[in-house]
Specification:
The complex is a heterodimer. Chain A is an all-alpha fold. Chain A has one domain. Helices cover 71% and strands 0% of the residues of chain A. In chain A, helix 4 crosses helix 5. By secondary structure, chain B is of the alpha/beta class. Chain B has a single domain, classed as Luciferase-like domain (TIM Barrel), CATH 3.20.20. Chain B is 50% helix and 16% strand. Chain B has 14 helices and eleven strands. In chain B, the strands form two sheets. Chain B has an eight-stranded parallel beta barrel with strand order 1-2-3-4-7-8-9-11, surrounded by eight helices. A two-stranded antiparallel sheet of chain B has the order 5-6. In chain B, helix 5 packs parallel to helix 6. The longest helix of chain B has 18 residues. The chains are: A mainly alpha, B alpha/beta. The interface between A and B is medium-sized, with 15 and 12 residues.
Amino acid sequence: MNYKEFVKQVPKTMRGPLSENLIDILLEGKENIVVPPSLAKTILHYWQRDQLDSEAGLTNLIKATFEAAPETTLKVIDNFDLKELRIALQPV
Amino acid sequence: MKSFGIEFVPMELFWKTTYYSMQAEKLGYNSIWITDHFNNRNVYVSLSFIANYTDRIRLGTGVTNPYLIHPVYTAQSIASLNEVAPGRVICGIGAGDKTTLEMLGKKMDTPLRAMRESVNLIRSQIAREKSGYQGKMFSTSPGARFNFKTKGEVPIYIGAQGPKMLQLAGGIGDGALINASHPRDIERAVSLIEKGAGKAGRKITDIDVAAYTSFSVADDLKSAKKSVVPVVAYIVAGSPSVILERHGILTENADKIRQGLAERNWGEAFGAVDNNMIDAFSICGTPDQCIEKIDELFKTGINHFITGSPLGPNKKKSINLFGNEVMPHFKEA
């Protein structure tokens, strides 16, 4: 799945709050949230540079949350009323 | 200068603890302390990873102990970590907790000697002294030294609670980690550290005196309290009667908690924790309430305040609350 293309549809003003919500999914999910170590390190790399809301940062966040907790991720997407992104992610 | 630290128990995956550590550094905390228990993630693996993603914040063991880890290995780990994060590493060491030691069949024999010798041996190893170290509990042969040099000095902080250990911390520690949260306990501890420093010909100002507290902050008092109750329950259960009496806690109430914990009856154990116990063994409340309590602690003579577990009902939010609403009050002052 090309998450980067989806992220391009997210208005820039929403990227900060969306990244906060997505990181919360990863942090607050218990041990059943599985994020591959390499992806976790990539996310930390963007966090270190305050770039989790950048296109690349958000791409990695959505990838991690959607693969670890798809339903919760879709709920967050719904809360932001990102209909196109929702439709794109839905059939997966 | 007032410093602020944060403790993490590496119960969570490595990258979560690292995320929170980076968050703390961004907010201006001065130190991170990772606990050392065999049943959680390894302290040095955690610190090493955190070191790679931080640049300024100091990194300490909070705390390791000489009964389970030989001081030579502590020295080796600390010196190696110091290569990853030069000048940022602190060796926090204490006698350990009895329950954990007993689980592994270890007795806490002569804790003062164990601590004194450990501190001396760690310093001797880091300095690559050729003569070896001869103590009664620990010794090394001449020539048993590292094959690598450690740049600069690595401060050793002593975790202490009892009167003699607090004096020892004042006598030989670069820092003291006071395991308490109530101003009365901290005040008493500071005077004992000062006494120990005096006996060794030192001044208390030579020592970084830290209150290592159980801490919980939230937007509302109820949530902050709810989060700290389990931690307080364990502290009450593990406290000797002299400490309980000092805070007016009845033995039968403490016994009720002990029994509940032993039977894993959390409802009974946590339900028996009252407000007096929470006040005695934690700093807990809204940001304004925490400011008031921390202010009292600084008046006792400490210069380093450490927020220990649980931090709050939501770790990320509580770290932000502390960093944005509590710490600036003291840093700006």
